[in-house]
Amino acid sequence: MQARTLKNYSACALALACSIYQVTTASAADPDSLFDGGHIKYAYENTQLPEDSLFRDYEDSPLQDHIGSVRLKFSERIDRVKLSADYQLLAAHGDRLSLIRRTQGGQAGFIDDRYRLMDLTHVFSEDTNEVIAHRLDRLAIDVSTENQFLRIGRQAISWGNGMFYNTMDLFNPFDPAAVDREYKTGDDMLYAQQLLHSGDDIQAVWVVRRDDKGEVTSEVDSIAVKYHMFSGEREFDLLVSQHYDDTVVAFGSLSNVGEAVWRGDISYTDTDTDDVFSLVTSLSYSWYAMNRNMSGVIEYFYNGFGLTSDEFESGNIAGHPELLERIDRGELYTYGRHYVAASLLIEMTPLWQLTPNLFINAGDGSLLSQLVSSYDLRQDMQLLAAASLPTGPAGTEFGGANSPIPGKQLSTGFSMFAQLAWYF
Description:
The protein is built from 4 helices and 21 strands. By secondary structure, the protein is mainly beta. It has a domain at 1-74 and 87-134. It has an 18-stranded antiparallel β-barrel. β17 and β18 form a beta hairpin. The longest helix is centred in the first third of the chain and has 27 residues, at 3-29.
C-alpha cells in the first residue's frame, strides 16, 4: 500500500474516531440528541482466479480487497413530522477495484449519484485501486396520520415475495448471493401509503432520476402503485408501474401450505420490442431437530429477460440490450433464464447461525455453493463470514463466460469474505 494511501486512511480513521466519540458522548449525555445510532464495518475479501481466467491478464491471483464503511443515523420527530438522515463514510482498497477500473472504467462499482435527483456523494480520494467517499444514503421527511403515511426524499423500499430473486422489487434489489443485506441503497422518491379499514393498504411511489446527460426527465422516472390485501390466511399484491419506458404489471401471493409458507410473484413487462414474463416462487419451512432451530427454503426463478444456454455460450450477450440495461441498473444479477436456489439456516447456538446456500443455473448446469456464518461476539459486535465456490464447465454462468479471446473465460474461483461490525 502506498504511503499516500496510508496517510489518507490514517487521517480518515482519526477524524472518524474523534467524530464518533464526540457524537456518542453527546448522545449519552443528552436524551434529546438527534443521534440515533450507527455502525462501523470492516470487510476483507479474497478471490482466487482460475488459470484460464482472462482477469489474470490484468491482476494477479488472488484478488485481495479491504472495505470499510461507517453509518451514522440522525432523526428528529416533531409531532407527526419526522426528519431522518443517514450519513455514510466509505473506503475501499484492493485488486477488485483496479480490475473493474481497468476492464470497465467508472467508479469501480462504488455508489455514485449520477442518475439520482440529488447528488449527495462526494469522493475525497480516488486512485486505480482505492476510493474514499462520503454520502447521505437517507435524507427524508415523514408526515404521518392515523391512516396515511407520506415520505419524501432519499429512502429505500422493498416490494415482492422473492427470498433470493425478485421480479417485483424494481428499486435496488439485493444480489441473490449478497452476504450483508442490512441496508439497501437509497433512491430519491416520493412514497405514500393509505391504510384501509379492512387491513388492506395502497402504496404509491414516484422515483425521480436523471438521464445520461444529467437532466431530470420523465423518461427515466418510475411511477408505481401497489395494492396489498388480505383474504383469510392469504396475502395478495397487485402492482402497476411505469418503469423507465416500460409498463410493468405484477401479481404476488403468500399463503400457508400446511406448516410451510408458499410465496410467489409473476410479472409482465411491456418493452419497446417484446412482452416479457418473469416469475419467482418459493416454499419455506421451519422445524426443530438435533436440538437446534432450523429453517429451509427452496426457490425457482424464471428470468424472462435471460439468455438461453446456447446464446450465453456463444457470447451473444451484446445482442440483448434489455438484459444488459437491467443488469447495469442493478435490477438483475443473472444472465440465464432458469434458476433454483436452496438455503438452510441452522441455529448452532443462540449466538451463532450457519447458513449453506446453493444457487443453480438450471439452464447450463453451473452452480454457486456458499456457506455463510453469522456470530454475535457481543451484544454490539458481529462477525459475518462466507465462503463461495462457483463451479461449472467453460462457457457457463458460474463456470465462466467465454471471452473474445479463445481459451480464456470471464471467471473467478473460490472466494472468502469476512466482516466485523460494531454497532453503537
